Amino acid sequence: MEIHPQLLADCLVLGNWGNDTLLLHRNASLPWFILVPETTAADFLDLASARRAELLERLSSLSRLLKHELGYCKVNLGAIGNVVPQMHLHVVGRQPGDACWPKPVWGNLPEGPTYTDAALDHLKEQLRSHCALDILPSFRTGGPRE
Amino acid sequence: MEIHPQLLADCLVLGNWGNDTLLLHRNASLPWFILVPETTAADFLDLASARRAELLERLSSLSRLLKHELGYCKVNLGAIGNVVPQMHLHVVGRQPGDACWPKPVWGNLPEGPTYTDAALDHLKEQLRSHCALDILPSFRTGGPRE
Protein backbone atom coordinates (compact mmCIF):
# COMPACT_ATOMS: atom_id res chain seq x y z
CA MET A 1 0.00 0.00 0.00
CA GLU A 2 1.25 3.48 -0.84
CA ILE A 3 1.60 5.78 2.16
CA HIS A 4 1.06 9.53 1.64
CA PRO A 5 4.42 11.37 1.46
CA GLN A 6 3.46 13.75 4.28
CA LEU A 7 2.86 10.81 6.62
CA LEU A 8 6.22 9.31 5.63
CA ALA A 9 7.91 12.65 6.28
CA ASP A 10 6.38 12.88 9.78
CA CYS A 11 6.58 9.22 10.80
CA LEU A 12 8.56 6.02 10.94
CA VAL A 13 6.99 2.86 9.52
CA LEU A 14 6.72 0.26 12.29
CA GLY A 15 4.96 -2.67 10.67
CA ASN A 16 1.70 -4.13 9.47
CA TRP A 17 -1.46 -5.85 10.50
CA GLY A 18 -2.41 -7.53 7.24
CA ASN A 19 -2.57 -4.72 4.70
CA ASP A 20 -2.89 -1.97 7.31
CA THR A 21 0.28 -0.07 8.21
CA LEU A 22 1.31 1.23 11.61
CA LEU A 23 3.36 4.41 11.77
CA LEU A 24 5.06 6.15 14.70
CA HIS A 25 5.41 9.91 14.77
CA ARG A 26 9.11 10.83 14.76
CA ASN A 27 8.64 13.24 17.70
CA ALA A 28 9.54 11.12 20.71
CA SER A 29 8.08 13.54 23.28
CA LEU A 30 5.00 11.34 23.30
CA PRO A 31 4.13 7.87 21.97
CA TRP A 32 2.04 8.86 18.94
CA PHE A 33 0.86 5.96 16.77
CA ILE A 34 -0.82 6.46 13.40
CA LEU A 35 -2.64 3.52 11.82
CA VAL A 36 -3.14 3.75 8.07
CA PRO A 37 -5.88 1.33 6.99
CA GLU A 38 -5.94 -0.04 3.47
CA THR A 39 -9.08 1.63 2.19
CA THR A 40 -10.28 4.19 -0.30
CA ALA A 41 -12.94 5.51 2.09
CA ALA A 42 -12.39 9.08 3.25
CA ASP A 43 -13.46 8.84 6.89
CA PHE A 44 -13.43 6.18 9.58
CA LEU A 45 -17.18 6.46 10.12
CA ASP A 46 -17.71 5.69 6.41
CA LEU A 47 -16.39 2.16 6.92
CA ALA A 48 -18.62 -0.87 7.35
CA SER A 49 -19.11 -1.94 10.95
CA ALA A 50 -17.02 -5.13 10.65
CA ARG A 51 -14.07 -3.19 9.28
CA ARG A 52 -14.42 -0.53 11.98
CA ALA A 53 -14.42 -3.27 14.61
CA GLU A 54 -11.30 -4.88 13.16
CA LEU A 55 -9.44 -1.57 13.22
CA LEU A 56 -10.65 -0.80 16.74
CA GLU A 57 -9.26 -4.11 18.01
CA ARG A 58 -5.88 -2.97 16.71
CA LEU A 59 -6.23 0.51 18.16
CA SER A 60 -7.34 -0.97 21.49
CA SER A 61 -4.27 -3.19 21.61
CA LEU A 62 -2.16 -0.05 21.16
CA SER A 63 -4.14 1.68 23.91
CA ARG A 64 -3.55 -1.23 26.29
CA LEU A 65 0.16 -1.10 25.51
CA LEU A 66 0.21 2.63 26.23
CA LYS A 67 -1.67 2.26 29.51
CA HIS A 68 -0.46 -1.03 30.92
CA GLU A 69 3.09 -1.34 29.62
CA LEU A 70 4.15 2.27 29.05
CA GLY A 71 2.26 3.77 32.00
CA TYR A 72 0.24 6.48 30.27
CA CYS A 73 -2.98 7.32 32.12
CA LYS A 74 -4.80 8.79 29.12
CA VAL A 75 -5.15 7.84 25.46
CA ASN A 76 -6.32 10.31 22.84
CA LEU A 77 -7.97 8.99 19.67
CA GLY A 78 -8.51 10.99 16.53
CA ALA A 79 -9.54 10.57 12.91
CA ILE A 80 -9.15 13.97 11.28
CA GLY A 81 -7.45 14.00 7.89
CA ASN A 82 -8.17 17.56 6.83
CA VAL A 83 -4.62 17.98 5.51
CA VAL A 84 -3.64 14.44 4.42
CA PRO A 85 -6.58 12.86 2.59
CA GLN A 86 -5.44 9.24 3.07
CA MET A 87 -7.32 7.82 6.05
CA HIS A 88 -5.14 7.63 9.15
CA LEU A 89 -6.08 7.08 12.78
CA HIS A 90 -4.20 8.63 15.68
CA VAL A 91 -3.68 6.91 19.05
CA VAL A 92 -1.60 8.99 21.44
CA GLY A 93 -0.40 8.30 24.98
CA ARG A 94 -0.94 11.33 27.20
CA GLN A 95 -0.31 12.29 30.81
CA PRO A 96 -0.53 15.49 32.85
CA GLY A 97 2.62 17.54 32.42
CA ASP A 98 3.52 16.09 29.02
CA ALA A 99 4.90 18.28 26.24
CA CYS A 100 1.55 19.86 25.30
CA TRP A 101 -0.83 18.80 28.09
CA PRO A 102 -3.78 19.32 28.14
CA LYS A 103 -3.96 20.44 24.51
CA PRO A 104 -4.47 17.89 21.73
CA VAL A 105 -1.22 17.02 19.94
CA TRP A 106 -2.42 18.19 16.52
CA GLY A 107 -0.81 21.58 15.88
CA ASN A 108 0.31 21.91 19.50
CA LEU A 109 3.21 19.50 20.05
CA PRO A 110 6.55 21.38 20.08
CA GLU A 111 9.56 19.97 18.30
CA GLY A 112 11.00 17.16 20.38
CA PRO A 113 13.69 14.50 20.46
CA THR A 114 13.85 11.63 18.01
CA TYR A 115 13.84 7.96 18.99
CA THR A 116 17.09 6.17 19.66
CA ASP A 117 17.66 2.79 18.02
CA ALA A 118 17.47 1.13 21.45
CA ALA A 119 14.15 2.78 22.31
CA LEU A 120 12.71 1.78 18.95
CA ASP A 121 13.93 -1.80 19.24
CA HIS A 122 12.27 -2.05 22.66
CA LEU A 123 9.00 -0.57 21.41
CA LYS A 124 9.08 -2.86 18.38
CA GLU A 125 9.43 -5.88 20.64
CA GLN A 126 6.51 -4.70 22.77
CA LEU A 127 4.36 -4.21 19.68
CA ARG A 128 5.23 -7.67 18.45
CA SER A 129 4.44 -9.38 21.75
CA HIS A 130 1.46 -7.33 23.03
CA CYS A 131 -0.19 -6.18 19.81
CA ALA A 132 0.69 -8.99 17.37
CA LEU A 133 2.10 -6.46 14.94
CA ASP A 134 4.16 -7.81 12.05
CA ILE A 135 7.34 -5.79 12.41
CA LEU A 136 9.07 -4.91 9.17
CA PRO A 137 12.42 -6.70 8.82
CA SER A 138 13.77 -3.57 7.15
CA PHE A 139 12.75 -1.45 10.15
CA ARG A 140 15.27 1.32 10.58
CA THR A 141 15.18 4.57 12.51
CA GLY A 142 16.76 6.63 9.79
CA GLY A 143 13.89 6.83 7.39
CA PRO A 144 10.68 5.43 6.02
CA ARG A 145 10.29 2.09 4.28
CA GLU A 146 11.54 2.11 0.70
CA MET B 1 -26.91 10.78 33.89
CA GLU B 2 -25.01 13.81 35.17
CA ILE B 3 -23.26 15.81 32.46
CA HIS B 4 -20.03 17.62 33.35
CA PRO B 5 -20.66 21.37 33.90
CA GLN B 6 -18.06 22.36 31.32
CA LEU B 7 -19.86 20.36 28.65
CA LEU B 8 -23.16 21.97 29.63
CA ALA B 9 -21.55 25.40 29.46
CA ASP B 10 -20.24 24.74 25.94
CA CYS B 11 -23.16 22.76 24.55
CA LEU B 12 -26.90 22.38 24.14
CA VAL B 13 -28.48 19.06 25.13
CA LEU B 14 -30.20 17.56 22.08
CA GLY B 15 -31.50 14.23 23.28
CA ASN B 16 -30.72 10.65 24.12
CA TRP B 17 -30.03 7.23 22.75
CA GLY B 18 -30.91 5.09 25.72
CA ASN B 19 -28.77 6.39 28.57
CA ASP B 20 -26.28 8.13 26.27
CA THR B 21 -26.70 11.86 25.74
CA LEU B 22 -26.13 13.84 22.56
CA LEU B 23 -24.91 17.41 22.87
CA LEU B 24 -24.43 20.11 20.23
CA HIS B 25 -21.69 22.71 20.62
CA ARG B 26 -23.26 26.18 20.90
CA ASN B 27 -20.93 27.58 18.24
CA ALA B 28 -22.99 27.34 15.07
CA SER B 29 -20.06 27.96 12.70
CA LEU B 30 -19.88 24.20 12.26
CA PRO B 31 -22.13 21.25 13.15
CA TRP B 32 -20.22 19.87 16.16
CA PHE B 33 -21.87 16.94 17.93
CA ILE B 34 -20.63 15.55 21.25
CA LEU B 35 -21.89 12.16 22.39
CA VAL B 36 -21.61 11.49 26.12
CA PRO B 37 -21.86 7.75 26.78
CA GLU B 38 -23.07 6.49 30.12
CA THR B 39 -19.90 4.90 31.41
CA THR B 40 -17.27 5.26 34.10
CA ALA B 41 -14.48 4.24 31.72
CA ALA B 42 -11.98 6.98 30.98
CA ASP B 43 -11.30 6.39 27.31
CA PHE B 44 -13.25 5.09 24.32
CA LEU B 45 -10.67 2.37 23.63
CA ASP B 46 -11.15 1.08 27.21
CA LEU B 47 -14.72 0.02 26.38
CA ALA B 48 -15.68 -3.54 25.49
CA SER B 49 -16.03 -4.19 21.78
CA ALA B 50 -19.84 -4.54 21.84
CA ARG B 51 -20.22 -1.19 23.57
CA ARG B 52 -17.78 0.46 21.17
CA ALA B 53 -19.77 -0.93 18.26
CA GLU B 54 -23.04 0.39 19.68
CA LEU B 55 -21.60 3.87 20.08
CA LEU B 56 -20.05 3.78 16.61
CA GLU B 57 -23.43 2.99 15.09
CA ARG B 58 -24.71 6.20 16.64
CA LEU B 59 -21.68 8.19 15.59
CA SER B 60 -21.97 6.80 12.06
CA SER B 61 -25.60 7.86 11.86
CA LEU B 62 -24.47 11.38 12.76
CA SER B 63 -21.75 11.18 10.12
CA ARG B 64 -24.26 10.14 7.46
CA LEU B 65 -26.51 13.03 8.45
CA LEU B 66 -23.59 15.44 8.15
CA LYS B 67 -22.53 14.09 4.76
CA HIS B 68 -25.77 13.18 3.05
CA GLU B 69 -28.28 15.64 4.50
CA LEU B 70 -26.15 18.62 5.52
CA GLY B 71 -23.65 18.38 2.66
CA TYR B 72 -20.36 18.26 4.56
CA CYS B 73 -17.61 16.46 2.65
CA LYS B 74 -15.51 15.60 5.69
CA VAL B 75 -16.23 14.33 9.20
CA ASN B 76 -13.70 14.62 12.02
CA LEU B 77 -13.89 12.19 14.90
CA GLY B 78 -12.15 12.65 18.23
CA ALA B 79 -12.04 11.20 21.73
CA ILE B 80 -9.69 13.38 23.74
CA GLY B 81 -10.92 14.36 27.19
CA ASN B 82 -7.73 15.86 28.60
CA VAL B 83 -9.69 18.75 30.15
CA VAL B 84 -13.11 17.24 30.89
CA PRO B 85 -12.63 13.76 32.36
CA GLN B 86 -16.15 12.51 31.56
CA MET B 87 -15.94 10.48 28.35
CA HIS B 88 -17.26 12.43 25.36
CA LEU B 89 -16.93 11.74 21.65
CA HIS B 90 -16.70 14.48 19.04
CA VAL B 91 -18.21 14.22 15.54
CA VAL B 92 -17.73 17.38 13.51
CA GLY B 93 -18.83 18.29 9.99
CA ARG B 94 -16.00 19.95 8.09
CA GLN B 95 -15.44 21.44 4.65
CA PRO B 96 -12.68 23.44 2.96
CA GLY B 97 -13.05 27.13 3.79
CA ASP B 98 -14.93 26.58 7.05
CA ALA B 99 -14.20 28.68 10.13
CA CYS B 100 -10.94 26.92 11.03
CA TRP B 101 -10.15 24.73 8.02
CA PRO B 102 -7.93 22.71 7.88
CA LYS B 103 -7.14 22.86 11.60
CA PRO B 104 -8.98 20.60 14.06
CA VAL B 105 -11.76 22.43 15.91
CA TRP B 106 -10.26 21.82 19.36
CA GLY B 107 -8.66 25.07 20.46
CA ASN B 108 -8.88 26.56 16.97
CA LEU B 109 -12.54 27.42 16.29
CA PRO B 110 -13.14 31.19 16.65
CA GLU B 111 -16.20 32.49 18.45
CA GLY B 112 -19.18 32.13 16.14
CA PRO B 113 -22.92 32.62 15.90
CA THR B 114 -25.40 30.72 18.03
CA TYR B 115 -28.20 28.56 16.64
CA THR B 116 -31.58 30.10 15.95
CA ASP B 117 -34.67 28.32 17.24
CA ALA B 118 -35.67 27.51 13.65
CA ALA B 119 -32.29 26.03 12.81
CA LEU B 120 -32.35 23.90 15.94
CA ASP B 121 -35.90 22.71 15.32
CA HIS B 122 -34.89 21.66 11.83
CA LEU B 123 -31.77 19.84 13.06
CA LYS B 124 -33.78 18.17 15.81
CA GLU B 125 -36.24 16.85 13.26
CA GLN B 126 -33.38 15.51 11.11
CA LEU B 127 -31.85 13.79 14.13
CA ARG B 128 -35.16 12.21 15.01
CA SER B 129 -35.85 10.91 11.52
CA HIS B 130 -32.33 9.98 10.29
CA CYS B 131 -30.58 9.02 13.52
CA ALA B 132 -33.44 7.72 15.70
CA LEU B 133 -32.47 10.12 18.46
CA ASP B 134 -34.96 10.59 21.29
CA ILE B 135 -35.33 14.35 21.34
CA LEU B 136 -35.87 15.88 24.75
CA PRO B 137 -39.36 17.38 25.08
CA SER B 138 -37.81 20.20 27.12
CA PHE B 139 -35.39 21.00 24.30
CA ARG B 140 -34.74 24.73 24.28
CA THR B 141 -32.07 26.85 22.68
CA GLY B 142 -31.55 29.07 25.69
CA GLY B 143 -29.74 26.71 27.97
CA PRO B 144 -28.95 23.23 29.03
CA ARG B 145 -31.39 20.72 30.45
CA GLU B 146 -32.25 21.32 34.11
Task: Give a written overview of the molecule.
The structure is a homodimer of 146-residue chains. Chain A is an alpha+beta fold. Chain A has a single domain, classed as HIT family, subunit A. Chain A is 29% helix and 22% strand. The first copy, chain A, contains three helices and six strands, in the order αβββαββαβ. Chain A has helices at residues 5-10, 49-69, 117-131; strands at 11-17, 20-25, 32-36, 74-79, 89-94, 134-135. A six-stranded antiparallel beta sheet of chain A has the order 4-5-3-2-1-6. In chain A, α2 (49-69) crosses α3. The longest helix of chain A has 21 residues, at 49-69. Mean pLDDT of chain A is 94; it is low at 140-146. The A-B interface holds A 42-46, 49, 52-53, 56-57, 59-60, 62-63, 73-83, 91, 94, 101-104, 106-108 and B 42-46, 49, 52-53, 56-57, 59-60, 62-63, 67, 73-83, 91, 94, 101-104, 106-108. β4 of chain A pairs antiparallel with β4 of chain B, so a sheet runs across the interface.
